[in-house]
Amino acid sequence: MDLVLIEALKVDTVIGVYDWERTITQTLVLDLTLATDIRPAAANDDIAMTLDYAAISERVQAFGTEHSFELVETFAERLADTLRREFGIPWLRLTLRKPGAVPAATAVGVSIERGERSAS
Ligand SMILES: Nc1nc2c(c(=O)[nH]1)N=C([C@H](O)[C@@H](O)CO)CN2
Predict the structure, then answer these.
(1) Where are its TM segments located (predicted)?
(2) Which ligand 1 atom is the nearest neighbour of the CA of 75?
(3) Inter-residue contact 78 to 101 (CB < 8 Å)
């Protein structure tokens, strides 16, 4: 299985458990690793035969605008489910960082893997 990568994608959203966080937009930083077979697209030089990282990046940013969760866990889980359903992604790893949430840390966040990763 091959992988399509999206690294350090900035996503603006309302997120957080504290009252003050419900009134502001914060920027999350996402890394996505998306399983697919790139061989058909490579053989035909055809964007329609692979995962379009530009289209997926736009969808992730729209997702951030559409939702306002409290937990980064909820954002990650719901986004992973949305991307897998809408783009037919069999397996993905999603790492979500919330910079500045803990001043002593560069970033905090979660990393999840969902779906089945085939061996071939
Ligand atoms: N595991 C989590 N811990 C915390 C979260 C979270 O989403 N998941 N969120 C907060 C606050 O919103 C924090 O980011 C504000 O600085 C605290 N802990």
Answers:
(1) none
(2) 7
(3) no
- pLDDT tens for each residue of 11-61: 999 999 999 999 999 999 999 999 999 999 999 999 999 999 999 999 999
**CA geometry: angle 9, 13, 14, nearest 5 deg:** 150
Residue 72 Cβ < 6 Å to ligand 1: yes
With beta carbons less than 8 A apart as the criterion, state whether 13 and 25 touch. Answer: yes
What is the CATH number that goes with domain 2-115? 3.30.1130.10
pTM equals 0.97
Is the complex ipTM higher than 0.90? yes
- Tell me phi and psi for residue 75, to 5 degrees: -60, -50
Structure tokens at 42: 């490579």
How many Å from the N-terminal Cα to the C-terminal Cα in the chain? 5
